[in-house]
Amino acid sequence: MRYLKIFLFVLALSFALAPEMKLRRVQEDIYMVRGMDALPSLENRGFMSNAFAVLTSEGWVVIDALSTPELSKEFVDNLMKVKKAPIRYALITHYHPDHWYGVKTYKELGAKVIAHKNLLEFYNSGEARMALEGSKQRFGELFKSVELSPPDVVVEDRMLLKLGGKSFEITALPPAHTNSDLLIYMPDAKVLFTGDLVLNNRIPFMGDRNASSKGLLLVLQRIKSMDVKVLLGGHNEPMDMSAVDFTIGYTSFLRDNIKKLKEEGKSIDQIREALKNNPYSKYVMYEVFHSSNVFKLDSELDVEE
Ligand SMILES: [Zn+2]
Q1: How many Cα atoms sit within 13 Å of 281 on the Cβ side?
Q2: Predicted pLDDT of residue 4
Q3: Which protein residues have their CB within 5 A of the ion that is ligand 1?
Q4: Which residue of 20, 48, 109, 247 has the smallest Cβ count within 10 Å?
């Protein structure tokens, strides 16, 4: 009896912690699910990133695949309640697990997967498989049904996708958040899908080994010059251009200060210590990402000109 009580308590707790997936309409024909701000865990089912879907007269175009096939399946089930139509294309904003690992569901439904040419490279080199093995070991059961596959279409530079009256201008970017970032623009709606390039009041992860903070700043300036009403990112609520300024602010703050401290001859430990408390320490994910960002930018600045 006592064990049953404990069991029920733990069960109730895990339901309370597991975030529910609720499909929301962002605007006419554009839908999203909003993951929580956290690292992946068994408790949150890896539901810590967003996915989007655009309904066209010839079927759905989805943006990002969430962290697991279970989550992307739930996402698709929700879409089918809005409109039973095929998933025609799946655009993957970059190779990180929370954007790519649920891709199996889309493949099984016959969607054409579109990604940056470097995501194919990441897959072909065997690095993707090694990273998945690492994730499986680290997170146990969470990623057990993840199956990776090469994209069907790769973007080398630019690509225009048209389907059922809607256009998507897809740009493959030089290294920024990763070396596999896609920027996806819907010119008629003035909507821009930004993956993890833009974050609002949340500390970005800049620690990917293929990331470039210098490249990120160039991309962010480029975004600022675009005619955009709504930015839809891999995390956060729908954003406006002020989010770009937030991301530029944090990135420049780190780069400028690390540069200065290096010139003063400070060691990485001293730099870390000096940049521990700062105006950004109140933002979400600070504890998780800030320290590794400092470390990564320090080594980036070593090799820049
Ligand atoms: Zn990412």
Answers
A1: 8
A2: 60
A3: 96, 196
A4: 20
Residue-wise pLDDT for 8-52, tens only, equals 555 555 544 567 899 999 999 999 999 998 889 999 999 999 999
pTM of the model: 0.93
Task: Decide the pairing of beta strands 59-63 and 158-163.
Answer: unpaired
For residue 91, give the H/E element and its range. Answer: strand 87-91
Compute, in angstroms, the gap from residue 3 CA to the centroid of ligand 1: 41
Q: Could you tell me the residue range of the domain that residue 55 belongs to?
A: 14-242
Q: Over the chain, what is the mean pLDDT?
A: 94
- For residue 39, the CA-to-ligand 1 centroid distance in Å is 11
> Is 248 inside any structural domain?
no
> What is the Å distance from ligand 1's center to 7 Cα?
36
Residue 204 C-alpha to ligand 1 middle, in angstroms?
9
Does the structure show a pLDDT above 70 at 1?
Answer: no
Residue 107 lies in a domain: yes
In this structure, what CATH number is given to the domain that contains residue 133?
3.60.15.10
C-alpha 293 to ligand 1 mean position (Å): 13
199 located within any domain: yes
**300 within 8 A of 213, measured Cβ to Cβ:** yes
Residue 13: Cβ within 10 Å count: 11
Confidence at residue 12, expressed as pLDDT on a 0 to 100 scale: 53
